[in-house]
Write a structure and sequence with these properties.
The protein has 8 helices and 8 strands; from the N terminus they run ββααβαβαβαβαβαβα. The protein is an alpha/beta fold and 220 residues long. The strands form 2 sheets. Strands 3-8-7-6-4-5 form a 6-stranded mixed beta sheet, with helices on both faces. A two-stranded antiparallel ribbon has the order 1-2. Helix 6 (144-155) links the parallel strand 6 (137-140) and strand 7. Helix 6 runs parallel beside helix 7. The chain is globular, with a radius of gyration of 17 Å.
Length: 220
C-alpha cells in the first residue's frame, strides 16, 4: 500500500498489483531469462507478455533511447494519453486514475461518424487530437493510418508527442508504418511485424504508469 496525493494532502491508495499479477510476472521473468533490457524496459516486456500470453513478443520489442524515461516523465507531469481506439482508452483509464490521474482519450471522440472515401476515422481524429494536445503520450494499436498521419505531421513541423507507442496490428500498411516510425526519430516503443493491438499498447503504457508511480510515491 502507498500514499497518493489528494486535495487534502495524502490519501491511501489501493496496491497496484494483485498477487496473481505478481506471480505471473515472476514466472514470465523466469521464462524469458536475461533480456539485456533496462529494468523499466523489462517492465514493459513482461506486461506485454502477461497481457498476451505470448513470450514470442520478446524479440519483436523495440525502444528508442530514453523512450521509457521520457514517457514516464511526461505521464508524471500530467500528459494526456491519446489512443486510436475506445478499447485501448478503456484499458488504460483505470491505471491512469490510480496513479497520476492523466486524462485518457480515444481520438475517435473527435472523428466524424463516417470517414470520407480514402480516409479513416482514426487518422482524422488523430489530426485534431495532436493539434489540441501537444506533448501527449500517443498509443496506436489498430490504425496504421493514424500512425502515418502522426509521423507526417511531425515531419511537417508539428510538435512531437512525448512518446509514441506504435503497435498497430494486421497486414495492410502495418509493417510500412512501423518502418516509418523507426526512421522518424520520435521517442517510441514499437513491436516489429504484424502483431499489436489495443490490449498491447494499453499494457505498455500501464507498465510505464505503474513504474513511474512506484518510483516517485514513497511507501508509508
Amino acid at each position: 500500500w502507498r500514499h497518493r496525493p489528494s486535495r487534502g494532502g495524502w490519501a491511501w491508495a489501493e496496491p497496484l498489483d494483485h498477487p496473481i499479477f505478481t506471480e505471473s510476472i515472476r514466472r514470465i521473468q523466469q521464462m524469458v531469462g536475461p533480456s539485456g533490457l533496462t529494468p523499466v524496459q523489462e517492465d514493459v516486456l513482461f506486461r506485454l507478455i502477461h497481457s498476451s500470453g505470448d513470450p514470442g513478443l520478446a524479440p519483436l520489442l523495440r525502444f528508442s533511447a530514453g523512450a521509457c524515461e521520457a514517457g514516464m516523465a511526461a505521464l508524471a507531469d500530467g500528459a494526456v494519453i491519446l489512443t486510436d481506439t475506445a478499447m485501448a482508452a478503456a484499458a488504460v483509464a483505470p491505471m491512469a486514475a490510480r496513479t497520476f490521474g492523466n486524462a485518457v482519450h480515444s481520438v475517435l471522440e473527435w472523428a466524424p461518424a463516417v470517414a470520407p472515401v480514402g480516409q479513416t476515422r482514426a487518422a482524422l481524429g488523430m489530426a485534431y487530437a495532436l493539434d489540441h494536445h501537444p506533448k501527449a503520450v500517443v498509443l496506436i494499436g489498430s490504425a496504421p493510418t493514424a500512425l502515418e498521419l502522426l509521423i507526417a505531421q511531425v515531419a511537417a513541423g508539428a510538435q512531437s508527442p512525448a512518446l509514441v507507442i506504435g503497435m498497430p496490428v494486421g497486414f495492410v500498411g502495418v509493417a510500412e508504418s512501423k518502418r516509418h516510425l523507426a526512421a522518424s526519430g520520435l521517442a517510441q516503443i514499437r513491436l516489429e511485424g504484424s502483431r499489436g493491438g489495443a490490449g498491447l499498447v494499453a499494457a505498455a503504457v500501464n507498465a510505464l504508469l505503474r513504474r513511474g508511480w512506484l518510483d516517485q510515491v514513497p511507501v508509508k
